[in-house]
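Now read the record:
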Amino acid sequence: AILHDWGDYGHEGLHQMGSQLICNYPSLVFSFVFFIPIDIFQGFIRFPTIIAAFHTLYSPFSEVRFLEFYVADVMSSLAKPFIDVALITCWLSSYSVGKELEAGACHNKMGWAIFAWYLPFHIRFWQCINKWWVTGDAFPHLVNAGKYFASILMILSNYLVGREPSWINISLLMYLLSTRYSYTWDIFMDW
């Protein structure tokens, strides 16, 4: 009887624990391979990238050099695909035959992922504020900061929809605002 007693978790609890582990699996594998201190998997490229990533974390409060700007920009470009892979993995691993996944179940397990999605935009926002503070040029630095601020609002509203579905209209508005702002900036300034 003791071998079959799952305690407070029960069979469903163990299934949820397993699906959480599977949801986090791609990120865990990526982190392990990326930060492994052995010169394999293109270590000669990974090590400077790791150093640049750490410099990027404090670059809003120091000189913003091209490498830190570039790393933060790439991180903000790749954040959403990484989150989508994690959410799809969660959804697929949580599926049970004949049983529907409750609304927001994967969002509730992905708090860390929302933070990982948010962090690059937060860093880029403060890098833009730093550049404005140092140069005194409101254009383009404050306008560019506005683009990242719109993205932050979109991410936060997306998080709130996962917690409270009544935020869906505000979230859609934030998606439209952020997409329009980023698209206009990219067309007129970056190209």
